[in-house]
# Entry
Amino acid sequence: MVGPTRFMNLYACFELGIVDALRKEAGLTAAELGALVGAKPDAVEQLLYLLEKERFVARDAATGGYTLDRLAEVPEADLQRALTFMGMIKTGMLRQLYYLADSVTTGSVVGLKEFYGFDGTMFEAAAQVAEVRAAWGPLARNETASVYPWFFRSFDIPAGARVLDVLGGTGLGAVMTCQLKGSPGLRVTTFDRPALEAECLRTFEAHGLTDDCSFVGGQVLESLPEGYDVLLLKHFVDMYDKDDVLTILRNAHRALLPGGRIVVLAAVYPEDIGDAGDYQADFFPAYILGCVMGRGGLQTVSTYRSWLEECGFEVTEVSAKEPAEIPADAIINRVVISATRRS
Amino acid sequence: MVGPTRFMNLYACFELGIVDALRKEAGLTAAELGALVGAKPDAVEQLLYLLEKERFVARDAATGGYTLDRLAEVPEADLQRALTFMGMIKTGMLRQLYYLADSVTTGSVVGLKEFYGFDGTMFEAAAQVAEVRAAWGPLARNETASVYPWFFRSFDIPAGARVLDVLGGTGLGAVMTCQLKGSPGLRVTTFDRPALEAECLRTFEAHGLTDDCSFVGGQVLESLPEGYDVLLLKHFVDMYDKDDVLTILRNAHRALLPGGRIVVLAAVYPEDIGDAGDYQADFFPAYILGCVMGRGGLQTVSTYRSWLEECGFEVTEVSAKEPAEIPADAIINRVVISATRRS
# Structure
């Protein structure tokens, strides 16, 4: 019951600049903080009770001055990453979650309709609504910076291969494939909605990769272009329900040459959903159903394995990040599943 | 970070009727539940992951059927009380909290303006906005049923006393004073905004108490009528900042006859704000500042004691509910503070 209040109480202390003020000067009182951030001292004191309780800040009973306690130990980069995530939760989720049940029954993100008059997914909204883009953009950039290098280290691409980056957006995955997996004769095709073609081609041009990369427009649930050695499915299988994932995997099977390989990047639930140390079940169902897609959701590795087998693939490797590489505040547990076209 | 999602994921399972369906029939699958509640099986499965994780429900891996686990042990009355509270959090808080920082800087409930075009406190909004009243009404009724009988057991009223129920609303406190503390000559006055007079007088009439009870209209921060033996301050001192509480207590001092008594019912923070078993700091600052008043907040007993002393009172008794009387899910810790006019 206290989840929403805890979240916003903490985030408001950052939004108001209370934490920043204490970082610059230790020992400020509620009256001094109030004057700095434009709030009544009483309200500052109230908001700081939770941070005192959690020992994020400490209050000197004699002077009434506050200092950073546990928050002082958090490295700036970690703090900024957490704040980016919290900003997304506030703007992209808090209000939208009010409509979670409606989103589930209609299979659409009702919150986007209510708050932005937008009919579609969060990804589509981010392309058109400034506030959504502002909340999601920094997160997407963090994601790219922290996940993509690891993803591309997790598998090999044979020299001179033909690669299809399925739902490759505006071409960043294709560019990174060339940069990190380059070989003579390598060709990468970005497949996505036709509306993204122009921006994607600009990306290729900006990186001097017009000879190596191309764009094919289409709908992933209808069909994929054929004749590829490697298909990349980065971060989107959890945005579809089972029947659609199976359709995509069957389309992928047809798109691959015999012996070709599919590489799936996905967040996954632990095999034991009761694993108390894994917070994905606490976050993703409400996030994906209520804020992003109105459908879909994470699966376990074993579920993806069985779906891949059902669609004519054999899983050859599953790799996860080294625990040491995962920040303590991370909610998401991603894996890379490689599978070969069996028949 | 997962607070808002955990809250709405759980509540949506009740809203959609998934829990009710499992209460009526154990062993239903996601497909059967989906058909019953009008949602895709995939979405039902996703929402139930969190409930599985928390062992609220269990899923039979062989049949895919769900049964209530820990939720089966919760008595119906406890569940209904928790759902009433959760309904209030959803309607009255979840979206409004988005504006917490704005509410703090403006000293007003910005969420009520944004969602209902309403300029005022949640109490005022409940009188005029059907949705707010629907969310708060049942909570207020639960409150009355569980708190008032205990409150009135916690102190004595001398026979034939003159009692002033400060901010007594539509007269319920006056009626209960007569019913539970009646004595020959007892007279109770309800003091509140003049706009409440008509409804208050109707309450007295409905209970046959027109001879015993009366109404005086006014503003609590300006002055109170004088010449009383006992003043009741039920549940509102935490809705004001310190300067206003001191004003109210000074007005109360003047309203009392020499030797008269003030009885304050209030939720209080623990003396050690770091007390991990007390959830009030997790809830009340964001609730009162962002959803109810835009100002105010709970204090500790020792703070109220010092404020009472500053205003010419001597605290004679502080009583709390017996722990056995407090439900395990209760966030609020209320006390009754009795104090005598010292000079």
Observations:
- The two ends of chain A are 52 Å apart (CA to CA).
- Residues 162 and 187 of chain A are 5 Å apart (CA to CA).
